[in-house]
Write a structure and sequence with these properties.
- This protein is mainly α.
- The chain has one domain.
- The chain has helices at residues 2-35, 49-71.
- The protein starts with a helix and ends with a helix.
């Protein structure tokens, strides 16, 4: 489970980096759209899934550490 969460977090971070490039490209498109008098509908904020995965990973690591301590 922990490995799956780490892979998911890593993939999300990679996708965010690619998204930065696409966002820059969309900025150019929006400039042209504004010059043509077109309006673009902006979306709202979304839940930060990578942050939630980090929190869950931290919780799982803490639980594993507590189990190791209680076994000794």
């Amino acid at each position: 489970m922990k490995e799956l969460l780490q892979k998911a977090r890593h993939e999300i971070i990679q996708l965010r980096r690619r998204n930065e490039v696409l966002t820059a490209q969309m900025d150019v498109v929006e400039i042209f759209a504004a010059a043509l008098g077109l309006k673009r509908n902006q979306g709202g904020m979304e839940i930060d899934v990578a942050w939630e995965l980090e929190q869950k990973l931290s919780q799982l690591e803490d639980e594993e550490a507590m189990k190791d301590i209680t076994r000794k």
